[in-house]
Amino acid sequence: MAADSIIASDRTVDRILFALKTRGPLSTAALARLMRMSVPGARQHLQRLLQDDLVESAQRNEGVGRPALYWNLTDTAVARFPDTHAELSQQMIEAIRTTLGDAALNRVVATCQRQMETRYVTAIDGARRIATKLERLAGARTADGYMAQVEATDAGWLFVENHCPICAAATQCQGFCAGELAMFKRLLDGACVERTEHIVSGARRCAYRITRAA
Question: What does the alpha-carbon distance between residue 170 and residue 189 come to, in Å, rounded to a whole number?
Answer without folding.
Answer: 25
